[in-house]
Request: fold
Amino acid sequence: MHIEKNVCESLIGTILGIPGKSKDGLSAREDLEVMGIRDELQPQKEGEKTYLPAACYNMSRAEKKKFYTTLFELKVPEGYSSNFRNRVSMDELKLNGLKSHDCHTLIQQLLPNAIRGMLPKKVRYAITKLCLFFNALCNKVLDVNTLDGIQEELVTTLCLLEMYFLPSFFDVMVHLTVHLIHEVKLCGPVWFRWMYPFERYMKVLKSYVRKGNNVEGCIAECYIAEEALEYCAEYLKDVSAVGVPRNMNNLSSDDHGIGAGNVKLVDLKLLNQAHQYVLENTNEVEEYKEEHMEILKATNPIKSKQQVWLQDEHNRTFTDWLRKRIALEIDEGSNISSNMRWISHGPQHQVIKYQGYMINGVRFHTKRHDDEHCYQNSGVSVVANTMLVSSAKDKNPIIVDMWYYGVIEEIWLLDYNALKIPVFKCDWVKNDRGVKVDDLGFTLVDLQRKGHKNDPFIFASQANQVFYIEDPENPKWSCVIENSHEKVGNSSNDDSSDKAMNLHFPAKSIPLVETIVNTLHDDESSYVRLDGEPMYID
Reply:
């Protein structure tokens, strides 16, 4: 944990040139003279002034401003990390007061996105590889068979960094990363041993202090008093311990809407779309779907050969057909489950709309709610079976699983009388031109290119929470970062709180070293950044 924090501070301090944190400076450049290497990076004379040429890892002032702007405007899910707006000084262009967890989220997810389009590609790739190592190392589940491969990747990454960074960058903390995989083999996953639970508890102990000259006594008295109250509270009904806040994200709690819901009369077309989605994703309806398909094939033998027409006709007529079919079976005395009776009848025309919804321990909000707050809980993704056709005349479409990305516009609670079903109405990004994967494996989406307007609903239980970071290289696109569904911020349980540390790396895959090296131009092999800004020494 502390190695990760120190490496993160050294890395960020060096590429941003933060005083006191950077491993680059006059003494580091003079060491190059002593060693007789990298002549182009050694201190240069310009009249009576001495300046340090811009190295390939040094950001220009414009790039620094773009980097800090990305962090300043960043919105993350609630409980994901601290608000980086409070850590960034746009006037001085520096980061202030980074905590251990801030460095954890930076190096594991945010830094690879924040430096997109900045620095030469070779340097950016090496930094991304280092971030990927820490992300793989901190996973809660590790495959022992992959540890040797992770170690080999780390060695390759350090060799890449040595090609571009100064020798002064490689202090003992960077060296200790080589031993982390061996430590995992001996002691197990990292999260069993890191200090986050203890650092969180130190904050609780500090809050007990009332007098600065009796620190230990205040902590001891408050701790004993709280323990006694909690012991007594075990024998009282429907009470909670004094001083312990109610956990808003308890995984064991029932799924529920956040805030007071409003009963609204919705558009009939949208209601039918939501009802159609419920029918298509209910297991009990599956046999009726197959029966309806067979009827359509029998009554339309020629048209039904086109799979696209068959699916469209099924979507158009299935709802009314199912209602009549279930009513007929009820009249005949068939055994129909209660849920099937209510679902086939359809929901009421009035739905309950919420601004937020808690499900599976994850807090979701609408886009309108997020626009008024400093966090982003409206991003969602879902994996769905999709029919792909090459053209309108394609008679042999294929069914594949595809990722869809969007934002929550509305949260509905459909009322089927005896059954309540929460659904999210989303604005989805078109997959054909609105989603792409770059050469480093990052998924990018164009949130303005909306599609799938005839199928905007998903079950709340199906939603995977993601958040979007505006791409510094092209503001039209946004980088997708997955938010682990195990995140449960503000939890009083140490084990549950540690789940917030298990972060998914934003890139699906990183190309091999040879692939990147072979694409570099000759001018990129220099240690000096020709478009950089030299640093003058007073």
Summary: The chain is about 40% helix and 20% strand.
